[in-house]
Amino acid sequence: MAYDVKLIGAKLRRWENYLNNFHLPQWDELPDMDLYMDQVVMLLQRYLNFLPEDEHGNAAITASIINNYVRLKIMPPPVKKKYTRVHMAYLIMVCSLKQSVNIPYIQKMLPLGLPESEVRRIYEEYVKTHHDVCLAFIQLVRAAGDDVLHSPAAQSVDVERLIYSSAIVSGFSKLLTEKMVHLEGATWDGQPESEVESKRR
């Protein structure tokens, strides 16, 4: 693969600047009035403007996607075609998690039927964690892309290494998420796991 190292370096610096300044909206910043679908889509596209279009150029968040989430019972249904602050919180978490976590795991992470106070607690913790991970990710990219960012002799192979590193981190993160979700409600019996048992979990 051939890459313009200067172009990649410039993109990395731009991405770092974006992440340094990006914040999901706090609970109190979400609209406290009921919204119609077009308003929800517009706000979500603004809140989550880092989400890429799909391979066909379609927006990452559309009315049909939201309707599908309701149909699959990933989020509460609207009330008389209107969406509340609770709906917005679910949608922000689901849409951002969907980039790396499969729907069945999201359903376990964000169960339905919670009181608003619990949704608020989960959402506020999610927003804080999202920001903390953004900052940690910047450091990870700096370390993995050090040659691309700082070496005048950097080559395409250094960009390839950064791509591989990002993909591997993504894979391990997905595996860890799934393993941890599977452990909900489980208790430790004090015995060390065998290698086979460890892989199952």
- Shape verdict: globular
- Backbone CA Rg: 20 Å
- Helix tally? 9
Structural class: mainly alpha
Helix content: 55-70%
The profile of the biggest β sheet is: none
Mean pLDDT, to the nearest integer, reads 90
**What proportion strand?**
under 5%
Q: What's the number of domains?
A: 1
What is the string of SSEs from the N terminus onward?
HHHHHHHHH
List how many beta strands DSSP finds.
0
* Low-confidence segments: none
Beginning-to-end CA distance, first to last residue = 36 Å
Outline:
The chain has helices at 5-21, 37-47, 63-71, 85-97, 103-109, 116-144, 146-150, 156-182, 195-200. Helix content is 62%, strand content 0%. With 201 residues, it is an all-alpha fold.
Characterise the protein shown here:
The protein is 62% helix and 0% strand. It has nine helices and no strands. Helix 1 packs antiparallel against helix 6 (116-144) and helix 4 packs parallel to helix 6. It is globular and about 60 Å long. The mean pLDDT is 90.
Topology at a glance:
Layout: H1 5-21, H2 37-47, H3 63-71, H4 85-97, H5 103-109, H6 116-144, H7 146-150, H8 156-182, H9 195-200
